[in-house]
Amino acid sequence: MSKLTIQQYKKAADTLRMLAVDAVEQANSGHPGLPMGAADFAFVLWHDFLRFNPKDPKWPGRDRFILSAGHGSALLYGLLHLFGYDVSLEELKKFRQWGSLTPGHPEAGHTPGVEVTTGPLGQGFANGVGMALAQKMASARLGLDRQKILDHYIYALVSDGDLMEGISSEAASLAGHLKLGNIIYIYDDNHITIDGRTEDSFSEEVGARFKALGWHIQSIDGHDHVAIHKAVKKAQKVSDKPSLILARTHIAQGSPNKHDLSSAHGSPLGKDEAAATRRNLGWPEQTFYIPEEVRSLCQKKTSGNKRGHNKWQKELAAWRLQNPEKAGLWDKLEKKEIPADIYGILSAAIKIESAATRSLSGEMIQKIAGIIPSLAGGSADLAGSTNSEIKGSAHVSAEDFSGRNIHFGIREHAMGAMMNGMSLYGFFIPFGSTFLVFSDYCRPAIRLSALMKLPVVYIFTHDSFYVGEDGPTHQPIEHVSALRMIPNLQVIRPADAMETAAAWTLALQKTDGPTALILTRQKLPALECSDSFKPGDVLRGAYNLHVYGRGRKITLMASGSESGLAVEAAKLLASQEMEISVVSVPCLELFLEQGEEYRESVIPGDSVKVALEAGRGALWHQVIGQDGLFIGIEHFGASAPDKVLAREFGFTAELVAEKIKKHLS
Q1: Is 191 within 8 Å of 199 (Cβ atoms)?
Q2: How many Cβ atoms are within 10 Å of 497's Cβ, its own excluded?
């Protein structure tokens, strides 16, 4: 047990409580209840156990702390300030204000010491599982299983809301299956939700549920500092199970009139109740008050951590000298290095032939895995269909974490969030795969990938109604357009081998956000290009394939499986006094980012513009304008052979040509 007295623990916890109360009051916005209730166990965790160095926030040897219940951000900001991170008292006073380091929910990359962007409940829980898995995989790959180089823990504060959301059950199930003993989560069991008491909608035995999922369970009084310390200490000794500590707390602890009330969840206490809380805790009237004793003990803890950080650096240096080959692998994993000529390497590896782009992507994965050790990932039980397995590498298991293939199971929600956690942890460029229609299950995690600017790769196959007999439940219609609406998500729908090589190149080169690769099940022809074709133009999102015929100028744009169809339709129209320029558009958003000169060279302003895609239109109208023609599908699919569906939905060369002629007339 730490040498602090119970009185010191209480004073430090009360400091966190009142900093949160004052920040929320000053902003007249926020969630004071959770910080007040969780302050006791949060302080014990940070002071007695957490390994960190505020001067090196990205130190690989640090423990990770995730505030999965992100609405309690005022608690995290108070901790960061007290323990020496670059979050000043002035920043606490600017809570939730424009330009501050203290936004309403924690944002990774914005505030020093914030590990994860949290807010949507359950995501942080699953991010932590991804971090824990990445730690195990990195340790195994580097031969550090018995070393103290990467022996830290993934801690999280989770709430009722986190545990009600389905994603947490998915992630918890996989964590238990993989026996991730480096996870220690503390459940802030305050019995309160926004609408009232948890018993109105939540009466399960949480401990029993998690025990059944393979977790180690403890129950404590979340305000008993000795019990908190003992519980974390005990959890650290459990190496073959993730741990969940059920901490019974009281929301708005210390408030005489809002203690245990849902009104303290998402609203300021109010001026009178804040004053009453001060009196109840024996706290000075001065706002944002921090006792010197509390500052001193936090600084002492931080100084001790810095000594631990220096010791770790020496241990790493010694390990590197003794293990030069593994040290080289560490550097490659940590830097996530991409060869400068990656497009040339991948292009040289392809075969120009008719093939499904999912198969071509599978070939790219093998080539990439051989030259970029950071690449690792798996599928939601669909590796055989998505062609996403790294051949020659083992599958990760509780007994062996050295492989690069991950069985996520049928858990798309958790897969996406775990990929984010792996990316945030470091060492890995993660990918995950499933059918495009199930991207809906990944969407919250994809949005957070984009928000956090994480270089993760989502592989979505079976990309249109051409799935055929499986019917409308498995035929994505709106999904490509829906994904394109997410800011900072690169959506790429390649049409052949060359474009698939470019797609993976773009995915690997995008270090400030995620990529969604949209791939076919059916075989596609290799596109015929003009003599003036420049392979590098594929990397600009859209390029001219070929010009057919002479006469009235038409620009026919398409992506993926429709690019070949556009060529067929253009050939039919070319004999009818029309000049058809066929443009392949594997990445619409990237093309829209190009300079005006290039965009005009690909899609001349004086041409009739037509776009062709087996889905809904959305962003295409930014290219074709009000007078352009979009040939797509604005309804759900049907169960029938793909060729029948193509005919019925108007996706044959003859029917496309007729629609274009009708538009011209």
Answers
A1: yes
A2: 25
What CATH class is the domain 346-524? alpha beta
Closest C-alpha among 224, 281, 231 to residue 250: 224
pLDDT in tens, 180-226: 999 999 999 999 999 999 999 999 999 999 999 999 999 999 999 99
Residues in the chain: 665
CA 243 distance to own-chain centroid: 23
166-177 helix and 123-142 helix, angle to the nearest 10 degrees: 20
Place of tokens 């916890």: 13
User: Could you name the CATH architecture of 537-664?
Assistant: 3-Layer(aba) Sandwich (3.40)
Both tokens assigned to 182: 């480096």
DSSP 485: T
Cα dihedral across residues 524, 526, 532, 534: positive or negative: positive
- Separation between Cα atoms, residue 157 and residue 279, nearest integer Å: 28
Please check whether residue 2 is in contact with residue 229, taking contact to mean a CB–CB distance below 8 angstroms.
Answer: yes
Handedness of CA 34, 37, 39, 41 (dihedral sign): negative
- Residues marked active site are found at 412
The reply to whether 346-524 and 537-664 are identical in fold is yes
User: Could you give the CA distance from residue 609 to residue 628 in angstroms, rounded to a whole number?
Assistant: 5
- Global pTM? 0.97
Q: What residue ranges do the domains of the chain occupy?
A: 6-306, 346-524, 537-664
Question: Residue 2: its pLDDT value, please?
Answer: 64
CATH top class, domain 6-306: alpha beta
Read out DSSP for 188-204? EE--EETTEEGGGT--S
Q: With b meaning 16 or more CB within 10 Å and e meaning fewer, what string describes 618-657?
A: bbbeebbeeebbbbbbeeebeeeebeebbeebebbbebbb
The structure tokens listed for 328 are 């080289």
